[in-house]
Amino acid sequence: MVGCRRRLGVFAWRGGTSRHYPLAVTEQWDAFLAALRTHEAGHRDLGFAAARAVRAAILDTGPTACGDVTRRANAAGQQAIEEYNQRNAAYDRDTRHGAAQGAVWPPRPNRSAPTP
User: Does a structural domain hold residue 46?
Assistant: First the structure.
């Protein structure tokens, strides 16, 4: 029997209540946190897919001699992990570590907006 447990937590500083900060700052912070959650959810989804891939890789090793079970299972699992490490790296590259999704603090001014 092969089992896999998954647990993931993402923590971000909330920064106090909105009455401590100007409304604009609170709104910007809330938008940043929403974008950060979106970005981190992508990593979470890749992590869960990796766990499923590791399990499937181990189950697909097929019949083997007892002495080879651990070695083959570890090799299969490690190969799946390496693939998902590459996928996570590509995800960060594609999203510029979340910046393309709006996960940037402090917020950057919209450079395409006309200047007064």
Answer: yes
CB atoms near residue 83 (< 10 Å): 15
d(CA 101, CA 39): 7
Domain count across the chain = 1
In a domain, 30, yes or no: yes
- Domain with 80 in it: 22-101
Q: Kindly state whether residue 5 falls inside one of the protein's structural domains.
A: no
Amino acid at 115: T
| Amino acid identity, position 81 | I
Q: Considering the chain, what is the average pLDDT of its residues?
A: 83
pLDDT tens-digit series, residues 15-30: 655 678 888 888 998 8
Q: Which of 9, 29, 31 is nearest to 101 (CA)?
A: 31
Separation between Cα atoms, residue 27 and residue 24, nearest integer Å:
5
Instruction: Collect all residues with Cβ–Cβ distance below 8 Å to 33 and sequence separation of at least 6.
Output: 12
Give the per-residue pLDDT at 42: 96
- Statement: residue 103 has pLDDT above 50: yes
| Matching residue, tokens 């700052």 | 25
